[in-house]
Task: structure prediction
Amino acid sequence: MAASGMHVGQYVHKNWRVLLTNLEQLWGKRTFVGISAVRQQAVGAAKESTEQIIIPRKKVWSSEAVLETLASTVHRDPTAYPYQFQDDPYLSPRNFAEFKLYSLSQESGRSAAKYFINSYPKFFTKDFAEPHIPCLMPDTISLSIDEVSEEALKERITLRKVKAAVDMYDQLLQAGTSVSMETTHDLLDLICLFCDRDPAQEEGPQTEDMEESGGEVRKRKGRFRRSSDFLRLTWRDQNNAERIFNLLPEKDARCYSALIRGMVKHGAYAKAFSVYTDLLNNRLTADVHIFNALLLAAPEVRDKYIERWDLITEILNQMSQQKVQPNLQTFNSILKALRRCGSLAKTLALQTLNEMKSLRIVPSLASFDHVLAIFYKPGMSGQVKANILQEIMSELEGKRFTCQDPNDVLFFSSAMRVCLDYKDLDLGYKVQRLVEVGENWRLLGDYYQQKIYYSRFFNLLCMMEHIDVVLKWYRELIPSLFYPRYEDMRDLLQALDTDSRLDMLPAIWKDIRTLGQDNKSELIEELLTLMARDKHTPEVQESFAACALDVKSVFEGDRGRPNVEWSTPTLTHITCLLLRANKIQEAWEMMLLFKSNNRVPSDELFEDFLCVCRREGSAQRAVELVQLSAAFCLQSTPSLVKRTLADFDLSEEQRASLSELETVAHPAD
Result:
């Protein structure tokens, strides 16, 4: 109504003369006596309507607004494989082994493509892509500036050529050319980041690689150089970073920051504190990054818990004296250091969180992950730890998070581990709901960490939840979010047993085969044990028998896979299931497998088989069964002979054969 009134007001304001003319024509001169009054009312209404008009500001949409809107209408398909494997349905991995092979092949293909593009950029100069995506174009890794200049040094720093950058810096010093402080900062950052080594380049195998660890140098031939190899390198004494640092005529806090952070990153903790002392002696003020690094190094230079906390307190006091404002990484470094401070850490961790709140610094998920690691330790009261996680989840409920710390991706997995160990289903649901808020699922980490999280959640459901809910989550999570482990499927079988839903076992067996876990003898044996333990309705027994025959095909080595070794319980359970479904021929083939695999069946199995033969009136099969029992030298053979002679209509030849077996079983004294 307000919008329509505003529209009428605008119409009156713009066209009031036309309205008056129409009124004159409509009513004539007889009613025009009060036209001046009408005119005045129209003008007043126009003024009032002008004051009520509110022109909205222009809405500016982001370039991704349409895509985000469309994406909000699409939901995850729980029956589909993970999206990164949907390029070729035939190659989509069905289990964790195929996923690992697919991922390694995919990464190998990327590495090979990068190698050729970076090694031969002249063959990839033309860009046919539309639209142009710079990040997908070949990286420029070849040096284009050969003369000795600061620009050449900057180019080598940009391309992360550590050794080439150091050589160019030395040449500039020898030529008497000064290097700007900004470029020197970048050079020190590069050297300290990669520990005075060139970073790993995806340029194929190296014939000889040097790894330094603990003062020893070892050669590794025919291996790829990886980034993890360089992260394990230790800080060498008097390396190029220290040499260049000592050559500087003037050192500022940024130079000290690069050196200290590099030493802490690569294990030279005591030397980092020595360089910090030198910084204080030169009357310089450290930045927040220096203090964050020293806080991480504090537990490494002290042995006792109280000494570690005293050192942390001293660093914080110096930080306050130098008026350096702490940030999120400062408090995360404190909490991470407190994880190695024993029993002192519990009270101090809560004090640290309160200090963060007083400074209006919002903790990240890594902050709470450190708190969980401090409070959640074996042998301590579970009630206290559960309360801590309850408080954390109450504070985090419904919030959206972005990654602010590398350890943020560890929180959800740690929280679900606490829920699993203390069997707190309600708390587990709270953690899962937090994952589902917005894009918090991105903070589950890579696929391996995501697999750990969902495996723990599924294990908790199998232990504590009703089987119908478990099966609902089973369809939601597998295989779209993770491929279950052998332990996960075993937990599912136990959940079916607990809620007396063993009729679902054949369907679960199909999933076990699809997931490639039909080579797990323990899992197969547990499945068969559950099916053969009790008797069920004829329909269920028929489905169990069909499932047992499918299990038998696994042991026969189909699909080009090696045979799984038969065990006595497995042979017994399959035979029993076939007998309950009156599949005598298939059961007899299983009995023969006992002999061919050097396994001895039980007396009870022969008695059950004889009962089925009597019910079906199969006298010849009963005689063969007794002969097989005698071949195994079972103690029940005489009893089987007597029952067969009494219960079956046998020929003279069959009776003579059984009488001979009875004589052998009971020779004359």
Confidence is low (pLDDT under 50) at residues 1-16, 26-35, 202-231. The CA atoms of residues 467 and 500 lie 9 Å apart. Residues 2-27 form the longest helix (26 residues). Strands lie at 209-213, 216-220.
